[in-house]
Design brief:
alpha+beta, single chain, 427 residues, 13 strands, two-stranded antiparallel ribbon, eleven-stranded mixed β-sheet, 15 helices
């Protein structure tokens, strides 16, 4: 028994004997690191649980900052005219004698083909809202007065190229083409919300929608659109049919899809193509990201940043609590080290190095997880991930600083333990 005790004392006192010839009042850096790692290695489960808080905090900060940079880069692309891929052209307006705004021009009948002749234009189509007044839009030919009336979907007329111009995708069926438009066919394409509202689910039975008691065969249902998402709650019919049946106006908007990089040139050319003698009769504007969306994104980034800070503070509190518990459990060891020559500064340094190591591990793991999360989210959204290189250095350093600061109070308590106190306590 006495032999084992001497061996244990020899092991514990070895670092102090090695450093005695150089500086009897402190560990060397090598001794500090060795003892800190040894103290952490004794409770791996506790080490993992203590590190989780730092990992979550650092990871949240990295993800918030990285996604803010990534979304801002995407927003700048949308705001850059050279990167615009969609333009909306509308007749210019002026106030008449009564003070009302009226269009000063109308689209020519071949507006779509004129736009397509321009180099860089990939798709074009005219969209018009059809005024129906009180005319019903239903999926049944008979009006039942006992049934509660639902809000009818809005009816639009369009030229065939509109669907490509707004980036529409079809859920089922197809969109109408030039043949339908030339023949004035009574066909309709529904947005998915309008199809649900009208109770139309399958197209193999050739369902019909009635607009002002006129039947229109439904040939397609839209799943989504890149522009004009309100069309998903609408009924769309060919422009020629709308003019013949419902006296629809000539056109409200010309939607133009352009190749990336051609935006500024198309924006100048298309009014001239529509009205060579009076190009100011038409206004052309790129569809760009809205400032309200940018502000909403900034608010969301701030909320996530605060969440990351809170997680980091929670991680720091976890380190403090676990380290205090470790100090209590190891008070006998601390008293024995003090008895064989360790100073208060040695004990304080050892525990601060331990919490610093926890901070380093949490910072590195949180940074890696945060960067991986940014890459995954960007890949799913089709974005280009943007993360400053200094984040990979600053985040682990921040984790280390948090760990060291969190370990200051427990280390101070450990340094105040006296050998006599541990002996009186029966340790």
């Amino acid at each position: 028994m006495a032999g084992r005790l001497r061996a244990a004392l020899g092991t514990l006192s070895a670092p102090f004997r090695r450093s005695a010839s150089r500086d009897p009042d402190r560990f060397t850096s090598q001794d500090l690191f060795f003892e800190a790692v040894r103290g952490l290695d004794g409770h791996p489960g506790r080490l993992i649980l203590t590190t989780i808080g730092t990992v979550l905090g650092i990871g949240s900060l990295v993800v918030t900052y990285g996604l803010a940079q990534t979304t801002n880069a995407e927003l700048r692309k949308q705001l850059d005219p050279s990167q615009a891929t969609h333009f909306v052209v509308a007749p210019a307006t002026a106030r008449d004698s009564s003070g009302e705004s009226r269009s000063v021009a109308t689209f020519p009948a071949d507006a779509e083909s004129r736009a397509l002749r321009l180099s860089g234009v990939t798709a074009a189509g005219v969209l018009t809202e059809v005024p129906l007044g009180d005319a019903p839009v239903t999926a049944v030919p008979v009006n039942d007065p006992s049934v509660a009336q639902k809000l009818a979907p809005v009816v639009f007329s369009a030229t065939p190229g509109l669907f490509d111009a707004i980036g529409a995708t079809v859920e089922s069926g197809r969109t109408f083409d030039d043949g339908h438009d030339l023949r004035h066919d009574r066909v309709a394409v529904l947005g998915k919300a309008a199809a649900t509202s009208l109770g139309i689910g399958r197209l193999d039975r050739q369902p019909t929608v009635f607009i002002d008691s006129r039947p229109y065969t439904v040939i397609g249902v839209l799943d989504q659109t890149d522009q004009r998402t309100d069309l998903l709650d609408s009924v769309i019919i060919p422009a020629s049919t709308a003019r013949e049946d419902l006296q629809a106006p000539a056109g409200d908007e010309l939607h133009v899809g352009v190749a990336r990089g051609s935006g500024p040139l198309i924006e100048r050319q298309i009014p001239i193509a529509l009205s060579p003698n009076s190009p100011k009769d038409f206004d052309s504007q790129a569809a760009r990201g809205s400032e309200r969306a940018a502000q909403a994104q900034a608010d969301a980034n701030l909320a996530f940043l605060l969440l990351g800070v809170i997680s980091l503070l929670a991680g720091a509190l976890g380190i403090i609590n676990v380290t205090i518990l470790s100090v209590k459990e190891r008070s006998g060891e601390i008293g024995l080290r003090r008895a064989i020559g360790a100073t208060s500064r040695d004990i304080r340094s050892q525990f601060m190095v331990e919490t610093g190591v926890i901070g380093v591990i949490g910072g590195l793991a949180g940074t890696a997880i945060g960067v991986a999360t940014i890459v995954v989210i960007s890949a799913t959204q089709g974005w280009t991930p943007v993360v400053d290189g200094w984040v990979a250095v600053a985040a682990p350093v921040l984790g280390t600083v948090i760990g060291v600061i969190a370990g200051t109070y427990p280390a101070h308590r450990a340094a105040r333990i006296e050998p006599a106190d541990t002996l009186r306590g029966g340790v």
